[in-house]
Write a structure and sequence with these properties.
Layout lengths: L1 E7 L2 E6 L10 E8 L3 H8 L14 E8 L11 E4 L9 H4 L27 E4 L2 H4 E3 L6 H4 L5 H11 L8 E4 L3 H12 L5 E4 L3
């Protein structure tokens, strides 16, 4: 399969690499749509270190191609979204709700393109697939769902982390994709007023 492989600072190449195979509790997903995150740019520029030879990318949707033993409730051909944070679901940190720190590793829940092969490829291997895939409703397009796995969840998490309550005043600095999702997250939680700041 073709994949976008990191080799070093300012050196990412589209290459032929082996297609993944699903083992127990895993799934192989055919990537139907992916995007480039700001983190991918930081990786390219050397601002965030990853090992050479890693496939980058963590924002995607796709179709299940293969299911390993122990993955239930899904079938080959299901359209799925997978989050950028892909916890194991059973370590102490996950059981305490600290999914982003899975395994006790800072940012341990962010695996794709960090220390596991990522989504800028034709296929991606999903570890702990049972807890990391969500079926996409048939009425939604890939484009409508693409931002759910990272951009939307990051923006919404701002209001959750800040424990925004109805009537709270909220300011959102920057109105890129994450900022727009932060605005929506604040609105859903009942913030009023919501002030947005965007440089000219």
């Amino acid at each position: 399969m073709k994949a976008n492989v990191f080799h070093g600072v300012n050196d990412i190449r589209v290459e032929e690499v082996p297609e993944p195979k699903a083992g127990p509790s895993q799934a192989v997903v055919k990537v139907t749509l992916a995007t480039i995150c700001g983190t991918d740019i930081h990786i390219l520029s050397g601002g965030y270190p990853v090992k050479p030879g890693l496939i980058i990318g963590h924002e995607f949707v796709g179709v299940i191609k293969e299911l390993g033993d122990g993955v239930t409730g899904y079938k080959v051909g299901d359209r799925v979204a997978v989050g950028a944070i892909t916890p194991c679901g059973h370590c102490e940190f996950c059981l305490n709700g600290d999914f982003a720190q899975c395994g006790g590793i800072p940012l341990g829940g962010w695996k794709f393109g960090n220390y596991l092969n990522g989504a800028q490829a034709e296929y991606i291997l999903i570890h702990d697939a049972q807890v990391n895939m969500a079926k996409i409703p048939t009425e939604l397009t890939d484009e409508q769902v693409l931002f759910v796995g990272d951009i939307m969840s990051t923006g919404f998490a701002a209001s959750d982390t800040a424990n925004v309550k109805p009537g709270d005043a909220v300011a959102v600095f920057g109105q890129g994709p994450i900022g727009l999702c932060a605005l929506l997250g604040a609105k859903i939680r009942g913030a009023c007023p919501i002030i947005t700041v965007e440089p000219l």
